Amino acid sequence: MQAKARVFKHYRSKFMKAITETIKHKFDNAYLRDENAPTAFLENLGWLYQDLIVVERDVVACFPQDWDIYAYFVREYHKALNSTIQRLIASEPDASAILTLHAWLKEYKASMKELEIPPEWLEPPLLGGSEQLLIDDYLKLIVKKLDEWSANLMKTELEEFSLRAEPPELDADG
């Protein structure tokens, strides 16, 4: 009696799903570690590039060519990054984080070109391709802070004037 070869069902889809979940989990952990410091999160994302280099160098050779595993990894990393950045924006970061994010997005595009990753693998565009909205948010935040500062200044000045705890300053003419 000959042993029958065992056939794995849905192996590829299960494997791809496991890769996707692992990447999402990695981004979630990175975001939660630096949740209160969005600039630190962005500055600590160097591992993303390192992971892609390792996948290209070491992992691709372990898979059949028709799986196109490198493209899959790049797409999943990009999707996870996009959802994490959306989460970061939803947390209404401060002005420095917005500027850091804007600069980081430019750096990300340049780094992906340097890694020779085709632009079609980087879909959807980060922030829907509307990085200009970051600058608009930054400007709104600056205007809001100026309004708060002006209101606080006026309140303080009015209180000091009304209380007249100190006499008005005299100049040379009295």
Q: What is the helix fraction of residues, given as a range? A: 55-70%
Note the beta-strand portion: under 5%
User: Number of helical segments?
Assistant: 6
In the predicted model, the low-confidence regions spanning at least 5 consecutive residues are none
Please provide the ordered H/E string of secondary-structure elements. Answer: HHHHHH
Instruction: Give a count of the beta strands, DSSP E runs of length 2 or more.
Output: 0
Radius of gyration: 26 Å
Give the overall shape, derived from the CA principal axes.
elongated
Distance between the termini: 118 Å
Major sheet, described briefly?
A: none
Q: Averaging pLDDT over every residue, what do you get?
A: 85
Q: What structural class results from the helix and strand content?
A: mainly alpha
Quick description:
The chain is mainly α. The protein has helices spanning 11-33, 38-43, 46-59, 69-90, 95-114, 132-163.
Write the layout of secondary structure elements.
Elements: H1 11-33, H2 38-43, H3 46-59, H4 69-90, H5 95-114, H6 132-163
